Amino acid sequence: MKGWLYQAQRIRRSLADTTSVPLDELLLMRDMNGTLARAMQPAPGVVPRAAAALLLLYPQEDDLWLPLTVRSGVLPLHRGEVSLPGGSTNPEDDGPVMTALREAQEEVGLDPAGVEVWGTLTPFYIPPSNFMLTPVVGFTPTPPLLHPNPDEVETVFSVPLSRLFDPATIVEEEWTLYGMQVRVPFFALEGYKVWGATAIVISELLARLRRVGEGEGA
User: 126 FRET partner, CA 20 to 30 A, in 39, 51, 106, 186?
Assistant: First the structure.
């Protein structure tokens, strides 16, 4: 590993490349025949709600780290799942960046003034919540002081970016979801299964970094 400054340079370069990432490079749920088992765009006639999430990076131990939240068990959707701070866009929000920063402040007490926004990843559809989610990538130069809002977040944990490149962190299991048997890939981190929308966002960032030579041992 060449250090977090090298990682930061590569991330910013990767975000400048607007070429789409093939779906095969993302951690996506598939049926037992290998066919994609989730919609990435809303069905014709369905009007999704705009939403955004913050993928925050900060330097520590010469690596870049990513905080993840565990959603409260009292929430109506995605309870107990690992996620990124985020949610639906309010009428007063001026785009996805404002939404992502506002939600991070509400959920984990992150000071928006300390975040440098580096760019966004590909928006995609989340069927259970009818969200069209835009992932926002941000950076803070020091480890953030996070204070989880217990109404929304059970706990917060962080992982180094280098660990996410380790193939051993990616596991696939057969689950029964929505009445069908599916193959679900996820990141196994700190005893949690990081799957679904969060895994899609992280895997897109990793795929973009691989394009510019970032990865384990790079």
Answer: 106
